[in-house]
Amino acid sequence: MKQVNRPSDDPLRVSKILDLKNEIKQNQQYKTTISDSIDFTNVQDSALDSMTSSLQRIYTLTQQAANGTFNTDDRQAIKAEIMSEVETMVDSLNTNFGGRYIFGGQASSDKPFSVNKENGGFELVFNNPDGAPNGNVSKKIGRGVMVELQTDGAKLFNAFTDDGGNAQDLNALFSDLFQALDSDDTEALGGRLLSGVDRAINNTVNQRTNIGAIQNRLIAARDRNEAEYLNLETTRSTTEDIDLAETFMKYSMQMVSYQASLNMGTRILQTNILDYVR
């Protein structure tokens, strides 16, 4: 039951009720965005966990290939397994969530990574179709509150350096690695290339840590959102709904007063035989 049924009943109260309902609707929209973003970061974390496992396996294989007891055939077998791990890693980085590639940046509808095997080669490609801007995607999770989801695949592809401090991307690293395997360059395999894979692992772990921090912020935002929703609903109910217990009490008191008035009137108006003898 409502305290007001028409705007004319109490215009000021009705205006306040409408404002509260609008805030509740916005609160629910923020809740949907927050929940979607939390799920999104969960998928990202899972993808980076898979990427880390692939890189760690590549590190182990590179370390084995640097062993002087391995021959050319052994290293070619290692090369084939590393290629397979790279493709597994690409599949993880191309994970799609709700129609969006999780590391596609602002061009989230385009697959960000691929492997080019033309002419017998093996090239890891980070796609940026038609020069589309890449970067993080911002989400509004509250009034005046924005959060950036770490969707920029470039940070995973080329955000580390070689031994000389020069910028290096994953494709350059793997190209050098395959070349060293083909030429049985154990010095490079056990030195700068092993270090390069290790830096790639560290970079992936750092990106995963950043995503974890964002996820913690989203979880805290979800808790605040739920508390705000309860406060808004309580205020709306207090403003709009009738307090049944209080209303029933008032009704009971009025009925008692009404019954007492009827009884008093009945006694005043009572007649007897003497009234007819007069």
UniProtKB/TrEMBL annotation:
List residues of the Flagellin N-terminal domain.
3-106
- Subcellular location(s) per record: Secreted; Bacterial flagellum
Looking at the record's lineage, which domain of life comes first?
Bacteria
The main location class comes to secreted
Is GTP-binding found in the keyword set? no
Q: What UniProt keywords apply to this chain's record, in alphabetical order?
A: Bacterial flagellum, Cell projection, Cilium, Flagellum, Secreted
- List, alphabetically, the InterPro entries matched: Flagellin, Flagellin_C, Flagellin_N
The Flagellin C-terminal domain is annotated at 195-276
PANTHER family the record matches: FLAGELLAR HOOK-ASSOCIATED PROTEIN 3, FLAGELLIN
Q: What is the stated purpose of this protein? A: Flagellin is the subunit protein which polymerizes to form the filaments of bacterial flagella.
For this chain, the family text in UniProt reads: Belongs to the bacterial flagellin family.
Please state what the protein is called.
Flagellin
